[in-house]
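Retry 2 of 3 after timeout on previous attempt. Resubmitting structure tokens to design endpoint.
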């Protein structure tokens, strides 16, 4: 075979690979699909009340999502030790208390720790709390110089001063725009955040993070039905909640789990799999989060499983370019949170996350909430821009792109004040 033919074959391969990655942003090209009914069991039985939902339908849905999508956590592991490594009663110009709390885990001769950065309003009462991960370290959400810089692996980002996969002082405060800490405190809520890379580095490598603490014998990676990174990050949020139950300043019954993008997928799974979370916020979570998979709009299962194969279980790859075979969809993930409040938010320019698919998931989860007498999404058309629907199931689409904005946080605070606080 001559060089010309080899070159032509190579470029044909590249062209085909590129075509496979082309996202659909055209509503007319969304495939026809039948959405599974959350109120009909896999064997065809109708679910007519919350008791049957709790005893029959919810367990089978939770099991399917666990075994075939997010992955099973292969065992239990409690906090080995808690260390308050720093605290102050004069944080944020005197507005708040600050704690930096290290949680340590040990198993099979291995150790992992991660640090909670916690801001609380000054009060003698226990406070409700938002908890969520950040992407580039606790020190990035605030200009507070007392916040420690993590030594965990981080994806390189030269604009943030992150080279050689190390976080640096240069990135302090670079993500304050995504965390309205002052507004949260002024509303009477606390905020806790964790750098997600301390729980599991966001790379296709299961030799680090929390996974090896659960390996048996010479195991090198999770089994096909076991957890990927999203379930690992969700596990970390539940362990943070274990700590909140010990902290006398925090009302552990009023903890709202929040997440953006892949961490919005994480927040939804944490809320679905751990009923102790009082509410859930999904910000621009897209495919594998709030958006309906069967629409194949923007991000798709195939794209996730090829670009980020570590996020979900290996079993999830069975549905790449095979969404029609899924007996569930993401409206049923949201339904697993019922009757607890859930907020799904989209952005007009964030077509990758499929705003319409996110809205439809909230809409089609509503019948399950109605079993409990809770109010969900009552209109079949998406609301106007920046006009939130604030019920037990809440939704908004705002102007702008894939991000977390002040507008988002203002809506979350208003909603949580009504339904959580």
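Retry 2 succeeded. Sequence:
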């Amino acid at each position: 075979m001559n060089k010309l033919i080899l070159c032509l074959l190579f470029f044909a391969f590249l062209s085909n690979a590129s075509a496979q990655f082309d996202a659909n942003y055209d509503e007319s090209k969304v495939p026809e699909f039948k959405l599974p009914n959350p109120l009909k069991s896999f064997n065809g039985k109708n679910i007519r009340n919350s008791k049957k939902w709790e005893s029959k339908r919810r367990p089978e849905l939770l099991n399917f999502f666990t075994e075939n999508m997010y992955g099973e956590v292969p065992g239990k592991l409690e906090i080995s030790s808690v260390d308050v490594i720093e605290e102050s009663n004069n944080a944020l110009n005197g507005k708040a208390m600050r704690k930096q709390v290290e949680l340590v885990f040990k198993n099979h001769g291995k150790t992992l720790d991660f640090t909670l950065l916690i801001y609380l309003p000054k009060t003698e009462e226990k406070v409700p709390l938002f908890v969520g991960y950040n992407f580039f370290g606790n020190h990035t959400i605030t200009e507070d110089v007392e916040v420690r810089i993590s030594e965990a692996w981080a994806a390189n980002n030269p604009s943030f001063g992150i080279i050689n996969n190390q976080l640096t002082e240069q990135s302090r405060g670079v993500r304050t725009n995504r965390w309205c800490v002052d507004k949260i405190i002024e509303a009477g809520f606390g905020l806790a955040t964790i750098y997600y890379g301390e729980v599991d580095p966001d790379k296709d490598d299961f030799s680090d993070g929390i996974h090896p603490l659960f390996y048996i014998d010479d195991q090198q990676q999770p089994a096909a039905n076991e957890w990927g990174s999203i379930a690992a990050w969700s596990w970390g949020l539940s362990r943070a909640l274990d700590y909140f139950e010990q902290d006398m300043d925090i009302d552990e019954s009023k903890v709202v789990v929040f997440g953006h993008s892949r961490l919005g997928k994480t927040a939804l799974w944490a809320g679905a799999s751990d009923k102790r979370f009082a509410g859930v916020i999904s910000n621009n979570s897209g495919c594998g989060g709030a958006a309906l998979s069967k629409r194949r709009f923007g991000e798709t299962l195939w794209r996730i499983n090829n670009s980020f194969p570590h996020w979900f279980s290996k079993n999830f790859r069975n549905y790449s370019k095979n969404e029609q075979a899924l007996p569930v969809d993401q409206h049923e993930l949201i339904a697993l949170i019922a009757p607890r409040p859930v907020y799904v938010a989209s952005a007009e320019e964030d077509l990758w996350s499929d705003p319409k698919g996110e809205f439809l998931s909230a809409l089609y989860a509503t019948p399950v909430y109605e079993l409990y007498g809770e109010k969900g999404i009552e209109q079949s058309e998406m609301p106007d821009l920046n006009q939130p629907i604030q019920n037990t199931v809440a939704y908004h689409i705002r102007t702008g792109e894939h991000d977390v904005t002040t507008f988002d946080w203002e809506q979350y605070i208003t909603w949580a004040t009504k339904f959580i606080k």
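Attempt log closed. Residues 50-70 form the longest helix (21 residues).
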